[in-house]
Amino acid sequence: MTIYDVSEKAGVSIATVSRVLNGSKNVSEKTRTKVLDTIRQCGYTPNAFARGLGLNTMNTIGILCADSSDPYLAKAVYYIERKLRANGYDSLLCCTGYELDDKISSIRLLLTKKVDGIILVGSNFIYEKDFENKYISDAAARIPVMLLNAVLDVPNVYSIVSDDFTSMYQAALEMTENGVRDVLYFYNSTSYSGKKKLEGYRAAMAEKELLSEALIQYFPGSHEDVHAMTKHLMTLNRQGLRFHGVLASDDILALAAVKFAKEMHYRIPEDFSVSGYNNSMLATCCDPELTSIDNKLETLCQHLITILVGVLAGNEMPKKTVFSGEIIKRGTTRRPCRIT
Amino acid sequence: MTIYDVSEKAGVSIATVSRVLNGSKNVSEKTRTKVLDTIRQCGYTPNAFARGLGLNTMNTIGILCADSSDPYLAKAVYYIERKLRANGYDSLLCCTGYELDDKISSIRLLLTKKVDGIILVGSNFIYEKDFENKYISDAAARIPVMLLNAVLDVPNVYSIVSDDFTSMYQAALEMTENGVRDVLYFYNSTSYSGKKKLEGYRAAMAEKELLSEALIQYFPGSHEDVHAMTKHLMTLNRQGLRFHGVLASDDILALAAVKFAKEMHYRIPEDFSVSGYNNSMLATCCDPELTSIDNKLETLCQHLITILVGVLAGNEMPKKTVFSGEIIKRGTTRRPCRIT
DNA sequence: TTCACATATGTAAGCCCTTACATTTGCTAT
DNA sequence: ATAGCAAATGTAAGGGCTTACATATGTGAA
After folding, report:
1. Residue A128 and residue A100: Cα distance in Å, rounded?
2. A321: Cβ–Cβ under 8 A, 6 or more apart, which residues?
């Protein structure tokens, strides 16, 4: 069933059928209905390939995501996909994993598939020079590349980021001001956001003259293994490192800190404070509930698509957009002692 | 940059280039390397549309998922995507949400895009007759349709399911045998799996002559809102419903049960038992850790792809495959009192 | 050397659309 | 009635690839 069959049945030329299909103006109402009727009647579906060949686009955006099973990234993918579809685009999803080679081949693949744009979600790899230089720029030379929570100064690459520096800076500041002087920073990601968060922590601690490199702790294991994270903290403690507060770069790390505190029989938040990041479902699942930083993921994603759509429409769009986050205070941090 | 440019530069015909590209046997080693070199040299990428036009396939599988931000479904999508890519297929992701119309249009879209197969993940809608009859069958008439944790007896539709009936049956049996007589069943999904779980619970309770409809409680709210879930249980309690155990159809509902128990100052598991489902990250995040049923999602997904690939290769494949789950016992359920 | 045959390469006909350009139709203004 | 013009429709040329079929090249046996 092709456009020829339809044109024959409707008694018009294929050009007219094509015009009807594409909503061209120059078709009389009479022929339009006639054609639409026959199309419906014989259940014709245009061949997307032929269409793509002609138009050189299939209205598809590639989403590159290291690990869509990570709840935070999954949410991002979800928001992006929905917003994209609302704008008439489809999403080709590539979960690359964390290997550089896989990422490279994924970008290749997306290019081959003639996607109209690429969105990088959770680009922990932005800073691997090879990747950055050779592959992102290459892709950007052809189609716009959108970065969620990452920044790269390359033409045709657009960034939407949350102000993680300030959020973490604030969180650290507040925790120290509430009397916790030995705040441990617990992280497991070296992404752009990850670095910004760490910088924020550093800035705040330095400002208070409390900065100590020993308190900055990287967790190298699985992103899901709370046990291992807790154990990591226990080990540090056993090695003599003292801390009575944890600023985590992720809610799950924060949860591990809560577990640690419980095991140590610290009272939360009286003896021990914890603050998470992302304000995920996990934050309200534990006991006490987690103070966490909400970085407005949905807003970020929404804006990202707005910009992408703008770029694709040929408009001039901002290269970098920053949104600020918000500390959602719950049970794992103390309230400031207001002096009345 | 087309195949013509390459053929010219390499001094061969386009057919030869095409053969090299498609790994045809009838090419001498000498020409092959020559062509591959020029391809690499001028950075040629085949046009997927033209390719699709010729081959009438683009090696793409459509994934239909109600809500990929649900951690369980996100994991499924992740496993599926990775396995698919390992087999040379790409994934077109459609997050349909829970509206029937959106699902229908998503299927249409996937068909238009000429995907080679469709995978339905989290098909809570399988039993909406309209959908089932008109759209799934329509799609299956053209391409294979794979159902994860759902069953539909329609030609060209294949099902991979976990034996949720038995898992829940076992869990209920054990809980009663450990002395909990008033086990509440707490669920929020009416999917195929959801129904099977409920049936399992019913069967076990009936067997023990403990079945009471009042103990079967549906939670209608957001799938993420632990507070609302907890509140729901509190309300039931206030209304006079007594229960000292909860079998939840999902870990997050189980978490709500744990919160409820804590609020009631029940000791877990001495006074109150809880069992979750899916053995998600949540299970090890709370305190005490959740007993939960692991339904081997990765295995299911892996097998699903194996079958899909088989079907696409033209092989005869089983219409329905069942995997059994496993109860992962943790801190929210009692151990059986072994009589020595 | 020559023939028969296998292997390598080339030619050209699709695949199904879109769209520039050509042609026809239907009006209005004269 | 007719020129002149806009709107509707048609014709045909790609778009970049695959592949059946035709042709050329190379091999070993007679």
Report:
1. 8
2. A159, A160, A161, A303, A307
A90/B91 touch (CB, cutoff 8 Å), yes or no: no
* DSSP H helices in A3-150: 3-10, 14-21, 29-42, 48-55, 71-86, 100-112, 129-130, 137-142
Sequence-separated (6 or more) residues with CB below 8 Å from residue A155: A140, A141
Q: Least CA distance to B66: which residue of chain A?
A: A78
Residue B340, classified by CB atoms within 10 Å of its CB into exposed (0-12), middle (13-18) or buried (19+), is: exposed
pLDDT band of B128, cuts 50, 70, 90: low
Predicted local distance difference test score (pLDDT) of residue A109: 83
Closest CA of chain A from B76, distance in Å: 8
Q: Do B49 and A69 touch (CB under 8 A)?
A: no
CB-nearest partner of A90 from B50, B113, B226: B113
| Domain match, A265 and A204 both | yes
Percentage with pLDDT > 70 across chain B: 95
Pairwise CB contact (< 8 Å): B49 & A45: no
CA distance A258 to A278: 16
Q: Nearest 10 degrees: CA dihedral of B188, B194, B197, B203?
A: 90
Q: How far is residue B106's CA from residue A85's CA, in Å, rounded to a whole number? A: 10
Residue at the smallest CA–C1' distance to nucleotide D16:
B50
Does A78 share its domain with A30?
A: no
Single pTM value for the model: 0.91
**For residue range B62-84, what is the model confidence (pLDDT) as tens digits?**
999 988 888 999 999 999 999 99
Cα distance from B198 to chain A (closest Cα, Å)?
Answer: 24
Question: Are residues A224 and B281, on separate chains, in Cβ contact within 8 Å?
Answer: yes
Q: Does A109 touch chain B (CB under 8 A)?
A: yes
Do residues A290 and A144 share a domain?
no
- Domain at A66, CATH number: 3.40.50.2300
B148 and B217 belong to one structural domain: no
Confidence of residue B124 (pLDDT cuts 50, 70, 90): low
Which chain B residue shows the shortest CA-CA distance from A72?
B69
User: Is there a domain that residue A336 lies in?
Assistant: no
Candidate from A79, A93, A113 with C-beta closest to B81: A93
**Highest mean pLDDT, choosing among A91-105, A121-135, A325-339, B39-53:** B39-53
B18 touches strand D (CB under 7 A): yes
Higher pLDDT, B203 or A106: B203
Q: Which of residues 235-274 of B touch A (CB under 8 A)?
A: 252, 255, 259, 262
Whether residues A262 and A316 fall in one domain:
no
Same domain, B247 and B209: yes
CA atoms of A77 and A59, how far apart (whole Å): 17
Mean confidence (pLDDT) of chain A: 92
Examine residue B330 and state whether it is found in any structural domain, yes or no.
no
The residue with greater pLDDT, A113 or A275, is A275
Total of domains in chain B: 3
Contact across the interface for B49 and A47, Cβ inside 8 Å:
no
B228-263 pLDDT per residue, tens: 999 999 999 999 999 999 999 999 999 999 999 999
Q: Decide if B161 touches A, using CB distance below 8 A.
A: no
Q: How many angstroms separate the CA of B20 from the C1' of C4? A: 28
Q: Does A329 reside within a domain?
A: no
pLDDT of residue B122: 81
